[in-house]
Amino acid sequence: MLYPGSYVDIAPSFVFDSVTYLDIDTRAPRFFADTNGVREIVDDHEGPSDPGITFIHADYTSPLDLPEDHFDLLVSLYAGLVSEHCTQHLRVGGTLLVNPSHGDAAMASIDPRYELTGVVTSRDGNYKIDTTGLNTHLIPRKPQTITAARLHETCRGIGYIKSPFAYLFTRIA
Ligand SMILES: C[S@@+](CC[C@H](N)C(=O)[O-])C[C@H]1O[C@@H](n2cnc3c(N)ncnc32)[C@H](O)[C@@H]1O
Description:
Layout: E1 2-4, E2 18-23, H1 27-33, H2 35-43, E3 52-57, E4 71-76, H3 82-86, E5 90-98, H4 104-109, E6 114-123, E7 126-130, H5 148-154, E8 166-171
Parallel strand pairs: 1-2, 2-3, 4-5
Antiparallel strand pairs: 5-8, 6-7, 6-8
The structure holds S-adenosylmethionine (SAM).
């Protein structure tokens, strides 16, 4: 799994075997350099016994020294237009998990490489994946044409009629 703009959110390693974290902030490499501290946090949770944790200190808008068509999961949470810059590293058939902040869910919704295949809902701290009624999602409250240019300009999410925690898009091309 690839997590650009992760900062120090290592929650994915509570679940996934192998995670590549990436962030431009100078505090993030310091956090990940403390491998014992990171392990301690991860070991406090049930999950893979010896997860692979890689950190890359980089700007995801620049070319990344990472394989193309490779990762199973790309995560974009509160970190800008990750999908626009990093989709080439996700394999076709892989999943983008993206929340609506910063307009990245909207960007994915107009990206022909993606198809909406699920939403993640949250209630009382419990998260569920829903794959039904997907055509009722991503409908803006205010009718508007969503374009990449507009999303670059505003860097803000679109207000949708329904507001799940996050969206799951499958890379189809
Ligand atoms: C609001 S934090 C979100 C952190 C984490 N995703 C979370 O949900 O807790 C946004 C992070 O994205 C990082 N970020 C923003 N633009 C970036 C870029 N172009 N390249 C790498 N990291 C970036 C920032 O440094 C910051 O750590």
